[in-house]
Amino acid sequence: MSETPDLLTTATPLALRPREAAKALGISLRHLHTLNASGRLPRPIRLGRSVRWRADELRDWVDAGCPPRDKWEALHNGSAP
């Protein structure tokens, strides 16, 4: 009988909690909140009362040079600012 790894314990999270997002970006939690409040991070998603950032979107955002939210959304939606 082969053992199949449990996907819930081995899968990479799709959405990161604020502390996880800050760690992934190499910044403090406080700085993450400051960047979000000033519109310099991609828009987070809300799951009920929880705030999360999509891991793939943060990766793409960093690859694009960390543009401000308005420019990121324009790039992400396919329209130029």
Structure described in brief:
This protein has helices at 7-10, 18-25, 29-37, 55-63, 69-76, and strands at 15-16, 45-47, 50-54.
List keywords for this structure.
3-stranded antiparallel β-sheet; 12% strand; alpha+beta; globular; 81 residues; 3 strands
Number of helices: 5
What is the count of distinct domains?
1
Residues in helix, %: 40-55%
Low-confidence stretches: none
Write down the secondary-structure element order. HEHHEEHH
* E-strand count: 3
Describe this structure in words.
It is a single chain. The chain is of the alpha+beta class and 81 residues long. The protein has one domain. The protein contains five helices and three strands; from the N terminus they run αβααββαα. It has a three-stranded antiparallel beta sheet with strand order 1-3-2. It is globular, with a radius of gyration of 15 Å.
